[in-house]
Amino acid sequence: MKALPPLSELISLKGKKALITGSALGIGKAMAWRFAEAGADLELVDMNERGLRVVIGELSKFEVKINTHKVDLSSKEEIDVLWEKLQGKEPD
To answer: What pLDDT does 90 receive?
Structure first.
């Protein structure tokens, strides 16, 4: 399978923000990589705090701001707390 070109060669998301849930593993992690490659600042959400730390380390080579949030998305209370934290810095 042919490797994908860096997203920054195709599109620039510099100055934009993306909120990605499930970002410690799988599709969410892959999305975090591609958005970071394109220059977007990230709000990463997952209940796996250790996984989020690993992703931050991997994405540190990109010049983007990364905030992480340990949230169980099956809990309305935790979602409400997340939205309170994000007030004023909503993703684009």
So the answer is: 65
Q: For position 22, which CATH number holds? A: 3.40.50.720
Residue count of the chain: 92
Please tell me which residue, 11 or 50, carries the higher pLDDT value: 50
Q: Work out how many domains the chain is built from and give that number.
A: 1
Percent of the chain with pLDDT over 70: 93
- Residue 89 is predicted with a pLDDT of 73
Extract long-range pairs of 10-15: CB within 8 Å, 24+ residues apart.
10/38, 11/38, 12/38, 12/39, 13/38, 13/39, 13/40, 14/38, 14/39, 14/40, 15/39
Range of the domain at 44: 12-86
